[in-house]
Recover the amino acids of this structure.
């Protein structure tokens, strides 16, 4: 199965939120997506963008919690946040902004996405919720983009931790 097909199937799962042409994927459905990654050839990168979405429709993009999976080379590893950033400790201590995955390394690809989703599910986002009271009871949703290449300004472009 292709990555595009897995993403398309995930977007149509029950519990997701739709606004116009945009689909916001529920956390439980993202875990299903991660399980299906083992059926994909691990040759395309993805960008996962999380959002807090409130019952009243309020939407908050968690830009600094994005996860970029880049496929290249022959080693799989994580890239850390820049130590000089001012992001909340909840983010820097629980997340890695990027994983570089060796071409065809399905195991590391799947593991990196699963670990990211697991860590995101444990986060409280108290700073965001305190700053925006309408997000107090917001739920976590995600979007997945294929092949997005943007340099994350808060990461260090060097190997840090092997996957």
């Amino acid at each position: 199965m292709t990555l595009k097909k897995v993403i398309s199937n995930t977007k149509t799962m029950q519990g997701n939120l739709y606004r116009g042409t945009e689909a916001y994927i529920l956390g439980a459905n993202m875990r299903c997506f991660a399980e299906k990654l083992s059926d994909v050839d691990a040759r395309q990168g993805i960008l996962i963008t999380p959002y807090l979405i409130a019952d009243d429709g309020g939407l908050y993009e968690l830009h600094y919690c994005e996860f970029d999976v880049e496929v290249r080379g022959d080693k799989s590893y994580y890239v850390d946040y820049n130590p000089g950033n001012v992001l909340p400790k909840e983010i820097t201590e629980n997340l890695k902004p990027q994983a570089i995955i060796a071409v065809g390394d399905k195991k590391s690809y799947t593991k990196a996405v699963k670990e990211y989703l697991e860590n995101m599910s444990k986060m409280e986002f108290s700073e965001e919720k305190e700053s925006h009271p309408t997000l107090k009871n917001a739920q976590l949703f995600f979007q997945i983009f294929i092949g997005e290449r943007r340099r994350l300004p808060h990461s260090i472009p060097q190997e840090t931790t092997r996957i």
Notes: The chain has a mean pLDDT of 90. The helical segments are 3-11, 27-36, 89-94, 106-122, 126-131. Residues 3-162 form one domain.
